[in-house]
Amino acid sequence: VAVGDQALDLSVFAAHNGFSALSTIQPHLSVFSQPTLNAFAALGRPIHRVVRGYLQSVFSVDTPFPHVLKDNPDLQEEALIPLRLVTNHLPMQIGDYTDFYAGLNHAYNVGVLFRGPANALQPNYKHLPVGYHGRSSSICVSGTTIRRPNGQIVANPTADPKVPVFSECKKLDIEMELGAFVCKANKLGEPVPIGEAED
Questions:
Q1: What does pLDDT average to in each consecutive run of 10 residues of the chain (199 residues)?
Q2: Which keywords belong to this entry (predicted)?
Q3: Which residues are known to be catalytic?
Q4: CB neighbourhood size of 15 (10 A)
Q5: pTM score
Q6: Buried b / exposed e across 129-141, counting CB within 10 Å, b at 16+?
Q7: pLDDT of residue 142
Q8: Which phi and psi angles does 151 have, rounded to 5°?
Q9: Of 29, 94, 172, 175, which is least packed with CB atoms within 10 Å of its CB?
Q10: Which residue in 147, 19, 144, 139 sits closest to 91, CA to CA?
Q11: In sequence order, which residues have a C-beta less than 8 Å from that of residue 89 and are 6 or more positions away?
C-alpha cells in the first residue's frame, strides 16, 4: 500500500500484529503473505472496505491505534519501504479478461480495418459496446517499455501484385485501457444482477 513516499509491506505488517485492532481480518491474515492479492480480493468488498478504513485510521495523525505503528519504531523500520526502492509487480494473477470497445474512435479505427468506413461501427455499438476475449499474457505493469508490433504489411498498396513484407507497423492506434478486477465469481450462465454489480 503506497503511503506518501513510502509503501507499507502488508505481509510484514500482518506478521507483526499490525492488524491487531481489526478483528474482522484476523482469520484471513494469510492472504497478505501470498505472492498476489487474489486471495484478498476473493474475500469480497465488505472486507476490502474495513481493511482500507483501518489502514487509513492507522495512518491518520490522530490515529485511535498509535500502538500499532505510530508509536512502534521497530515496525515502522521493518514494514515501511521508501517507494524509490520498490519494484512494482502485477498485484493479481490474471487468468483471463474481457475487453470492451468503449472508445468510439478506437472502435471506429479497428472497424474500418475489418468492414470499411461505411460499416466501421456495428449497428448496436452506441447501445452496447462490443466485448471480446482478451489475451491476459499482454498485461504488464505501468511503465513497462512497449515494443512497436511487427507483422505483414503491404508497403506499396498501389503495386501489382501486392507483396507483403514483414515490418514494424508504420501507424499505431493508441487507446487508454481502464481495468477492473472481478473478485467474486458468478455461476456459469447466470448473469450478475445490476444491484450486485458493485460487489
A1: 96 97 96 95 93 97 97 97 94 85 85 92 84 80 86 88 90 75 84 86
A2: Calcium, Hydrolase, Magnesium, Metal-binding, Phenylalanine catabolism, Tyrosine catabolism
A3: 106
A4: 16
A5: 0.75
A6: eeeeeeeeeeeee
A7: 84
A8: 180, -175
A9: 172
A10: 139
A11: 141
